[in-house]
UniProtKB/TrEMBL annotation:
GO terms for biological process: methylation. It is an enzyme of class 2 (transferase). InterPro entries: Methyltransf_12 (IPR013217), METTL2/6/8-like (IPR026113), SAM-dependent_MTases_sf (IPR029063). It comes from the Eukaryota. The lineage of its organism: Eukaryota, Sar, Stramenopiles, Oomycota, Saprolegniomycetes. This is tRNA N(3)-methylcytidine methyltransferase.
Amino acid sequence: MADMNKKIEEAVVKAAGVSVIQDEGLLVAEDEWTEEREVLAKELLEQDKKLVPTFWQSKYEKEAAKNWDLFYKRNSTNFYKDRHYLHVVFPDLAPHDDDPDTVWLLEVGCGVGNAALPLLEINPRLKVVAIDFADKAVELFHHQPLFDPTRCHVSVCDITKDPLPAVIDQEGGVNYALFMFCLSALHPEKMQDAVQKIADSVKPGGKIFFRDYGRFDQAQLRFKPGHKLADNFYVRQDNTRAYYFTTDEVRDLFAKAGMVECENEYIRRQYANRSQGVVRFRVWIHAVFQKPLTE
């Protein structure tokens, strides 16, 4: 499998467009996908046929919240960087003169506030309902210097089984929902119900902003045998899980929940690690879905 990974990386270097490692002025560059790369990637993934035993699959499912709780106990607020770009890639989240007095945002899988807090800082009309199923993440969020309980309701909630916070119904729903790198952590059989629950919380005309891992991301290609739970679904070394989506799968999940596609695309980037002389090839999905004004 190491040889196959090397072939994939060589194919990337040969692909049309700039290679980030070859341009000393670049740390990040857009990445181009070729038919050759897709064939190699599929061949690599098809080699890994053995699934994790049923006992361990059940254990990872039962202990999903616990494993993410341990993740935040180990890493505190230091693992993820603040996402100061969200109002740029999702312009609806930026302040606008014609906004209502209060704009409500539901964030699912809020972690320690790396998305919500920068948005609250730049948009004075925004109020956030933030949920995560890791107790430690919510605890750390509450202790962030910029946390303001008058504008941000943060609570422990497992989107796969718990009702959403009551404030959402009290406000007649939310204007927007943010669903970033969270759906991929759920078991595929529970994804549709989770998407439906979020869609139901959004007011007519409101939007869901989505980003998550895309098919053939280099992290997927580098999983060693013994980590595969199902097709495109894996367990990491720390026992957290990740699914790698296609745009078609994302479209189908949200369409079944009654949402209309506004944007849905792959983002492919090369990241240079010049100290090691290597390139990371990342793939994720960026999408926006809107709830119809009339159902």
